[in-house]
């Protein structure tokens, strides 16, 4: 079975939003890394990664998320992740992976897009 990986972009006020779907792994993670770098190169320093439709994430995917966080911090930017409790199929796989690795607390995590792009919103607890 071939699973399509897709990253689509958009804007929500001052936020650049990248909607990611499919498997985030060794093969596909360079695509997301490039899209994040492209957003920063375009001067977008407020970025939301909507990972609610990612149903598999390996260490390469986690590496891209950590590198994206580092990049955004280096340019005094902001990175928010959308990791709903009920994500693709049976819950957010990315949420479970980040929690198992003990790195979820590094990210500003929100349940949905409206929460992620609201300035006074509070992230979900780790």
Query: Approximately how much beta-strand content do the residues carry?
Result: 25-35%
Tally the helices: what do you get? 4
* Overall helicity: 25-40%
Give the integer mean of the pLDDT values: 88
Structural class: alpha/beta
Overall body shape: globular
Outline the low-pLDDT stretches: none
Radius of gyration: 13 Å
SS elements, strand count: 5
Topology at a glance:
Elements: E1 6-12, E2 15-24, H1 29-41, E3 46-57, H2 59-74, E4 78-82, H3 93-101, E5 108-110, H4 113-116
Parallel strand pairs: 2-3, 3-4, 4-5
Antiparallel strand pairs: 1-2
Helix pairs in contact: 1-2
Describe the overall structure.
This protein has a 5-stranded mixed β-sheet. It is an alpha/beta fold and 126 residues long. The radius of gyration is 13 Å and the shape is globular. The mean pLDDT is 88. Helix 1 packs parallel to helix 2.
């Amino acid at each position: 079975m071939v699973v399509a990986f897709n990253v689509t972009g958009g804007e929500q006020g001052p936020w650049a939003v990248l909607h990611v779907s499919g498997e985030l792994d060794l093969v596909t993670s360079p695509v997301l890394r490039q899209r994040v770098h492209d957003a920063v190169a375009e001067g977008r320093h407020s970025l939301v990664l909507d990972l609610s439709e990612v149903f598999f994430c390996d260490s390469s995917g986690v590496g891209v998320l950590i590198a994206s966080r580092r990049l955004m911090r280096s340019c005094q930017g902001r990175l928010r992740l959308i990791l709903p409790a009920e994500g693709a199929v049976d819950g957010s796989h990315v949420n479970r992976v980040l929690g198992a690795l003990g790195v979820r607390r590094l990210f500003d995590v929100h349940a949905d897009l409206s929460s992620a792009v609201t300035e006074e919103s509070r992230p979900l607890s780790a």
